[in-house]
Amino acid sequence: MLAVQVLATRAPALPATLSGLRIFGPYAAFALTAAISLWFGRARIFLAVLCIALAYAAYRSLLGAGLQAPGARTAFAALCVFVPANLALFSLLSERGLFTVFGLRRLLVIATELAFTFWLIEAGVTEFADWLGGNWFDFAWLRASPIPQAALAVMLASLVVVSARALALGSSVDAAMAGALLAFCSAAEKVEQPNGFALLTSCAALLLLIGVLQDSRRMAFRDELTGLPSRRALNERLMGLGHDFTVAMLDVDHFKNFNDTYGHVVGDQVLRLVAAELERVRRGGRAFRYGGEEFALLFPGRGIREIIGELDVLRANIAQHRIGLRGADRPPEAEAGRHLRAGQAPRKIVSVTVSIGVAETNDKLRSPDEVLKAADRALYRAKEKGRNTVSR
Asked: Please, are residues 225 and 272 in contact by the beta-carbon 8 Å criterion?
């Protein structure tokens, strides 16, 4: 975005043969982001880029001749308020789809804002823009900005909301929302520069596109339940390794019976517990969820002798962990449940064990696929020995 800021300020005008790029290039960025967001089911991103695209369309039709043109001040004031407020709203709302009742309600909000702005312009009502543009604070740099002071307050509040949401969730989609909002605010500041608004709104759209692609990659390569990298990530990592590495395959013993007895909620808790213990493994081990109740540990540049003790410590730590089950009469509210548990012992304590099979590269096992199969065979030997053990 810094590069775009410099480009917007210092770049020379495009030659006549490429003048259409300055006009229609942003629309291409908006269309691409909208199409990809729909393809990946990211309605919040689609609605955000729709707002920015509508703002650019207003710029092309009303603001190109300057802020003194008829209706220009009203249109500019409206987009400086509605676009940031909408992006803050969409960042707070959950992903509920576009072609649903929730998506239609959000589209209705945008349509209402659009109709309200159109009515203000057609009726020649200037009070809205005059109120937003009042001198609320007597600072020279505020008076020099084309953005109405009240709209600046809305932009600042929206930036705080979206940025706080992005930091709290660590989500690439919410981070992209924050970046797009910052780019749009910069575009509004440069509305009177020939290249500024077009370049920075295009930048906002591309930041949203990057957010969608990053989030889609995260979903493909990271397990949602445990937070560990997925089997696909393991396969990709294996292809980039050298000839010396060790793979350990780990399976939760009798997990199907455990799930049937105590339910999937407790089963998910067990999987997260195992994942947390795997992430504590030392010696350079990296944990992956392989599928179901099965996990993998990858030790690049390590042999079995170097890590076998670490695997046994892992097995013992999991076996020693105790899980307290809540009663069937627990209150549905989490806060009430915490108060109840504060003065009571758990109704029942359960634990699980794991079996581990380990294999390393050697003269017979050269490829990653061969090592994985050898570790899987060792895992079955661990189960045949009575489970809760490590086998080579």
From this structure: yes
Q: Which CATH superfamily includes the segment(s) 231-391?
A: Reverse transcriptase/Diguanylate cyclase domain (3.30.70.270)
Dihedral (CA of 302, 305, 308, 309) sign: negative
- Quote the CA–CA distance of 137 and 152 in Å, as a whole number: 11
Q: Which residues are catalytic?
A: 293
The three-class DSSP label of residue 284 is coil
Q: How far is CA 385 from CA 46, 216, 299, 356, in A?
A: 55, 41, 24, 11
Q: pLDDT (tens digit, 9 = 90+) per residue, 289-343? A: 998 899 999 999 888 999 999 999 999 999 998 887 765 555 445 454 455 455 5
- In terms of pTM, does the model score above 0.90? no
φ/ψ of 124, rounded to 5, equals: 70, 25
Note whether 194 and 12 are within 8 A (CB).
Answer: no
Domains of the chain, residue spans: 2-221, 231-391
CB 327 within 8 A of CB 270: no
Encoded tokens for 323: 């899980």
